[in-house]
Structures are given as C-alpha cells and as structure tokens.
Amino acid sequence: MCQKAGQVVTLMIRVTGRQAFYAVKSFDGMACSIAGVLEAIGDRWAVLILRDLSLGLSRYDDLRRSTGITNATLSDRLKHLEDNELIERRPTRTIPSDMNTF
Hints:
Elements: E1 2-4, E2 7-9, E3 13-16, E4 19-22, H1 33-41, H2 44-54, H3 60-67, H4 71-83
Antiparallel strand pairs: 1-2, 3-4
C-alpha cells in the first residue's frame, strides 16, 4: 500500500494467464519507494529490456529480436528508461558511429 494525499491506495493486480491487469495506471504522487520504482520503470516492455541489458545485450537490434518488440515501442521505452536515468546511451567506436548501444 502507498499513501497518496492523505489516503491509502491499494494496487490491485489480477493475473489471467500471462497477462496482468493493473487497477492503477500512474503512481505519480504516491509517497513510497515501490511506487517510485514502478513509475520509473514504466511497463512490462521496460522490464524485459532491463532484463536483456543485465544479461549483456546492448545493441538496439539485439534488444528488438530478443523481446519481439516493435521499433516504435522499443525506441519509446529506451527513451523513457534513459530519461529516468535507469540506462545510459554510449556511442561505440565504429565507422559510421553507432549510437544504438546502451
């Protein structure tokens, strides 16, 4: 449970098969560390991206193949994780320069 504006808000999760449905869409304004982490991570795609990065994948195409995510969604999630300082973009020393390494 997290507190929000003087009241207690409970995150309800119902799992059906492989899909999870969240009753709360945003954790903004909740005063607990778990809510802050969930807000910074974002969604299930971000968790899969963080998993793959921790396993050593670092190139954009490798992340896309591993997760099966679309280009638009992958770009959006990488930008979200970078904005929240969970990942850092590093240029590689190739010619032409490859900026797709995280």
